[in-house]
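Renewal narrative, Specific Aim 1. Our central claim is that a sequence can be written position by position from structural information alone. The example that follows is taken directly from our test logs and has not been curated for this report. It begins with the structure tokens describing the chain, in the order in which they were read.
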């Protein structure tokens, strides 16, 4: 039994072609779109697997999933594991503080030891 991809509209075919050439999307999503594109072009699952260097089961899995779910089926499902400690909103709120850099500057003294001179210099300037 040959696994075929469902018929695509012109808009879907254009979207698929853009996804296969994208450099902004994730590599996994682009690879899955390329699997679908090869199937639309008429290649069989073993042919796609040989052309892309994948396992035949992987190709059949993504073709079945695209036929069942459509475009959302190309996205990855949540994986098992520890849930995130912080939500996306909490991480984005702290991003400016994390990207600012260190608050204390350090330099090497003449003896080769590291010293934090910024607080000392700031105290002398304010005195």
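The sequence written for that structure reads:
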């Amino acid at each position: 039994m040959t696994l075929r991809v469902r018929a695509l509209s012109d808009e879907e075919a254009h979207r698929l072609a853009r996804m296969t050439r994208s450099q902004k999307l994730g590599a996994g999503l682009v690879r899955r779109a390329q699997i679908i594109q090869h199937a639309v072009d008429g290649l069989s699952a073993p042919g796609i697997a040989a052309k892309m260097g994948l396992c035949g089961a992987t190709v059949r899995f993504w073709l079945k999933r695209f036929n069942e779910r459509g475009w959302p089926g190309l996205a990855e499902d949540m994986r098992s594991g520890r849930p995130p400690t912080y939500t996306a909103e909490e991480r984005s709120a702290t991003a400016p503080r994390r990207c600012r850099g260190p608050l204390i500057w350090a330099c090497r003294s003449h003896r080769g030891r590291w010293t934090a001179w910024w607080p000392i210099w700031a105290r002398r300037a304010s005195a």
